[in-house]
Amino acid sequence: MAYQERVNILSTSEQAEFFGPPLFTTNDQRFFFALNDLERVVAVSFRNRGLRCMFVLLLGYFKAKPITLTPGFHQVKHDLAYICQSVFPGTGLRPFNLSKKELERVYQRIMILCDYRRWNAREHEQILMRYLADQASAWSSPRHLFDAAVEYSSIERVAIPGYSTLQKIISRVLVQQHSALASQVKETLSDDLKNQLQSLLETKCTLGLKGLRQSARNFTSPELDKELAIHQHIQHWMPEVLSTVKALSLSEKNLNYFAERVDYYGSKLKRQPQTRQQLYLLCYLQFRWQQALERIADGFIHHVRQTQHKAKAFAQESVYLEWQKAANNVSKAANILSLFTDSSVDPEQSFGRVREQALSMLPLRELESVCLFLNDQKRSVEEALWQYYDQREALRTGLLRSLFLCLHFEGNEETQRLAMTLQQASIDLKTHGKLSLETMNLVRVPARQRPHLRNKQEQPDPGRHEWALYQQIPRRLNGQLTLPDVAKYRSLEDDLVEKSRWQRDKDTLLDSSQLPKLMAHSDELVQNMMRQLNSRLEEVSTYLEDSDNRNVILRNPQGKRHWRLPGGNKKQLVNNPFFQQIPTTSVADVLRMVDRDTAFIDCFEHVLGSHAHSRRHEFDLLAILIGNATNQGIYGIAQISDRTYDQLSTIQANYLRLETLQAANDQINNATARLQIFRHYQIQEDLVHASADGQKFETRRETFKTRYSSKYFGTQKGISAMTLIANHAAINARVIGANEHESHYVFDLLMSNTSEIIPEVLSTDTHGVNHVNFALLDLFGFQFAPRYAQVGRVLNDLFDVKETADQRIRLKLKNPIKHKRIQQHWDTIARIAISLKERRTTQASLVRKLSGYKKNHPLLEALTEYNRLVKAQYLLSYISDASLRQYVQRALNRGEAYHQLRRAISNVNGDQFRGSSDEEIQLWNECARLVANAIIYFNSSILSRLLNSFEHQDDAAKVDIVKQASPVAWYNINLKGTYSFELSEKLPDLEELMASIDGYKPVLEK
Asked: Judging by DSSP bridges, how do beta strands 717-726 and 689-699 pair with one another?
C-alpha cells in the first residue's frame, strides 16, 4: 500500500461520529451534565449564562470523549436546551458561537477539572511517534495504530488530537517503518536473489508467482504433489530469504500482512516500487515455504494415521474371516486326521509323502488356521497388520517418503534418539532408497512388534522398519518432536520473545503492555489473590450455612453431599412478535438501507487502493455478499438476479478480501452500538458480556480443515464456525476444523476483535474450557465465565464440603493451590503473555504445545495452578450468586439465537459450504456474518424507534417490552426468491414499515 502524506484510516461517517459531538439520550444527558460541587463553582464563575451553559455542555462531552470540540450552536441545541431547562433553569438561549478566546478559556477549566492536558505537538508528538513505532513493529495496520494512539492519550491523560494530526503522525510512522525496511532489504539482498525475485514476477510458467499462489486444497496425492513441487522449487532460495527476513525483525502479524499483499495485488504487484515488491515477495516466500511445509507435515500425518486406521480394520476383518474359514475347514481337517487311522496307508512310506498328501487336501496356511481354531486361538492381529502395510508399499515409497524427506525434525531430552534416527533415515533414503542396517537397529518398537519386522530369512525388513518409524511421528508431534521450520510444530521457545531481549527489556515490555496483572509485583499479586480466595471460601461457607441452600447442595440418604445449581432459562426468544407485524423486506433492500445508514460499502477498497471512494460497484458487491452468505456463490446468484457472472467474478477478485469484510462488519457493528436500544442489550450493567461458540456446517468439497464427524455430518465432512457474540452483534468469527477444540480459539477471537464493542466478560459452554483459559483471560483483563454441563462434577473435583466440630459447613479446596510454583515461574508466564500481546504466537499454537508437556512439567504446572486459582474464585461466585448464573446463561442464549439466524441464512441453498479451499470458506463465512449483522442492525433500528416512540408517549409497559426484545429475527426478512439489486425505485421507508406496529407513533424532530 502506498502511504500518502495522510493515510486514510476512518471513513467519512466514522470521522464525523468519532470527532463530532456525541449523541446523548435523555439518560446520558442526566449522567454527563450532572455537576458536582467543584464543577458547579467553576460553572457559576462564568458570568455570561450562555458561556456557563456551553461550559457544562463541553464538560459533559469531554467526560464522554476526551476530545476538544468547536461545535456550532445548531449542532448541540438539543443538549443546550436540556441544560437550560435542568441544570441552570431559565429562558432559552439565542443562537451564538464561542469565540476562539472563549473556547480556550472554557477548555482550560475543563482540563483542570478532569486532570487532563491539551495536546501539544512540541511536547507530545515525538513521544507518541516512538510509542506508535513500537506498536507498528507488532502490527502496522493504520487502524491498529489509530486505536493505539487513542489508548496512549487515555493512559497519559492527554486530550485526543484532531483526526488530521493523527493521520499525519501515523503516516509518518508508517513511512519511516517502510523506508527502514526498504533500506534493509536493499542492502541485504544479493544480486542473485534480486534476479530470482524479479523472475517470479515475469515468469508465466506453472512455478512462477501464479504457480506459487496455487496451493493444495486437500490431502489427496495430486494436491500434495503441488506443495512438494513448490517446496522443491524454492528450497534453494530459503537460507538467504530466511536470514534476510530475520534481519528485518518482523512480527508474525506483520510478516503475514506483507505476505498477503502478494495475493491481493497478484500480477499487479509489478506496479509497486521495486523495494516494496522485494519486501512483499520475501515475506511471501517465507510464508509460502512455511505453509507448504505445514501442509506437507499435515499430509504426512493424515496419510500415516489413515493407513493405521485402515490396517486395523483390515486386520480385524482378516482375522475374523480366517476364523470363519477355519471353522468351515474342520471337516477337511477330519479327512487329514483319518490318514492316521486309514489301514490302506502304507506305514513304511516317509512322513514327507503323508504330509504332501495332507496338504493336497488343505493348504498349509489354512491347516495352521484350523489348528489354531481347534486350540481356541486366533492368528495374530499384528501379523495381519503388517501384511496390510506390505500391500501399501507404493504409498510408502511414493507419497509418504517424498513428504518425509522434506521435513527436518528436532527432539527434546526424551526424543533426542528418535530425532537422530529420523535424520539418519532421511539420509539413507535420499542416498540408497532404503534404510541401512545401522538405522534399523536404532528403531525402537514394542517387543510384540519386533518379530514382525523381520523377513522370512529372519533378517531386518527395511520396508517394515520404515513403516515403524513413520508411525512414531504423529503421536510425538505434540511438543516431544518439533519441526523448527513450521510454526505449528516448532518448539514453544521459538514462539516467545527472544530470551536476550526479554532479559534486557523486560521492564519496558511489561510497562508498555498496560496489563495491570503483569505490571504488578508477582509475589504481592499472588499473595493478594490467595487472600481473596481464602476470604471467599469463608464467605461462601457462611452463605451455604446461613442461607437457604436447598438449591445449592443436597444430602442424599447415604449422607453424601451433591451440588445442584439451577441454571437460567435456556430458551431464547427469536423473531419477536414486533417483527411479525412489519411487512416483509427483501434482504437486498435491507443491505441497501443499512449501507445508507452505515456506509459499509465504502470499506470495500480496490486491491490497488484506487477507486477507494467509488460506489459504482455497490450493487454488484451486495449481490456477491448475498450470494456467498446464502451458499449460492456468485454463479448461483447470477442465475437468479439482474447481475452477470463475469462482472461479479471481476468485482469479487478486486474488492472481496478478509480485511475488507472485517472492516465492513466492524462498520455495521459500531453503528449498531451507537443506536439508542444498544445499551439495553447489556446483560450486566456497565459490562459487555460476550459469548463464544462454534457452529457446525457441512461442506461439499474437501479442504485441509474439513473433517468427518458422524455426530454432525453423518458420512460427510464439515467445519466449525467459531463466532464471538457481544450484545447480539457478531463481532468476530473464525473457521476451524470440526475436530479442533473450541477452547483453543476463544482468546484469539477476543484479541483479534477490531470493533468498538469490547467485551469484558466472556462465557462459553464446556467446550470453551481448558487448563489455561482462566489464566490467559485473567492476565489480559478479561473475566472468563463458562457454563459447565456437569457443574457438580467440576465442583466436586475442586472443593470439599466438610463439617466443623459444631456441625457448620466448611468449604475448602480439595488440593491447595501451589502458589509458590506460580511465583517461581511467573517470569516465564509473563514472557508468554507478552508474546501473545505482540502477536508472536496464538493461543491455539500455545495450548497445543503446552499440551505436549507432562503434567508435572514446572511451567505447565505453574500455569495450571494459576488457572485453578482464578477458576476457584469464579466458581465460588457461581455458587453463591444466582444472578451470575443467569447472566452466563443469557449470554449463551444469545449465541444460540445468532446461530439460528446464521442457519436461516445458509439454509437458502442447502446449508452447505461449496468453497473449494479453506480461504474461500472463510470468505463465505464472513459474508454470512455481515448479512447477519446487517439484519441485526436493521432490527435494532426498528427497536430504537419503538423505544423512542413509547418513551415519548410515557408508555412504561411497552418501553419495558421493547428493552427486553431481541433483534435476532428474520420473519420480516425475505431471504429467498429472485433478487433485484439495481435501484429502480425508492428504498422502503422504515417509518412506513413500522406503521403497522400496534401503538407506534413517529416522534417528530423538534
From this structure: antiparallel
CA distances 543 to 538, 546, 814, 876, 879, Å, are 9, 5, 19, 11, 10
Question: Rounded distance, CA 890 to CA 888, Å?
Answer: 6
| Of the candidates 468, 414, 400, the residue with the CA atom closest to the CA atom of residue 439 | 468
* Stretch (H or E) spanning 638: helix 633-639
Alpha-helical (H) ranges within 656-800 are 658-673, 710-713, 746-751, 773-779, 791-798
Give the tens place of pLDDT for each residue, 631-689: 888 888 888 887 888 888 888 888 888 889 999 999 999 999 989 999 899 998 878 99
**Rounded to an integer, what distance in angstroms lies between the CA atom of residue 996 and that of residue 580?**
10
Residue type, 618: E
**Are 403 and 228 contacting, i.e. CB atoms less than 8 angstroms apart?**
yes
Q: What is the pLDDT of residues 100-140, one digit of tens each?
A: 999 999 999 999 999 999 999 999 999 999 989 988 887 88
Candidate ranges 441-445, 731-735, 795-799, 851-855; pick with highest mean pLDDT? 731-735
Alpha-carbon gap, residue 594 to 121, rounded angstroms = 39
pLDDT at 289: 94
Residue 563 has pLDDT above 80, yes or no: no
Tell how far CA 326 is from the center of its chain: 56
Backbone phi, then psi, for 813, in 5-degree steps? -70, 140
Whether pTM > 0.90 for this model: the answer is: no
Report whether 367 contacts 357 (CB < 8 A): no
Residues 339/427, Cβ–Cβ less than 8 Å: no
Helix (H/G/I), strand (E/B), else coil: 185: helix
The residues near 123 (Cβ < 8 Å, ≥ 6 apart) are: none
Cα(246)–Cα(283) distance, integer angstroms: 10
Distance in angstroms (rounded) separating the CA atoms of residues 110 and 65: 12
Burial of 481: CB neighbours in 10 Å, binned 0-12, 13-18, 19+: buried
Q: At 824, list the grid cell.
A: 517461581
**Burial of 333 from C-beta contacts in 10 A (0-12 / 13-18 / 19+):** buried
From the CB of residue 208, how many other CB atoms can be counted at a distance below 10 Å? 16
What CA–CA distance (Å, rounded) separates 379 from 322?
Answer: 8
β-pairing, 761-763 with 689-699? parallel
Return the pLDDT at 199. Answer: 85
Rounded Cα gap, residues 1002 and 992, in angstroms: 10
Nearest to 3 by CA among 173, 143, 157: 173
**Burial class for 33, CB neighbours closer than 10 Å (0-12, 13-18, 19+):** buried
- In the chain, the percentage of residues whose pLDDT exceeds 70 is 89
Residue 90 vs residue 818, higher pLDDT: 818
Q: Is the pLDDT of residue 252 over 60?
A: yes
CB distance 753 to 732 below 8 Å: yes
pLDDT of residue 611: 46
Report the candidate in 143, 132, 118, 172 with the shortest Cα–Cα distance to residue 9. 143
C-alpha to C-alpha distance for 266 and 607, rounded to whole angstroms: 9
Average pLDDT over residues 962-977: 88
* Closest listed residue to residue 584, CA positions, set 980, 981, 992, 971: 971
Pairing mode of beta strands 410-411, 912-913 = unpaired
Give the pLDDT band (50/70/90) at residue 4. very low
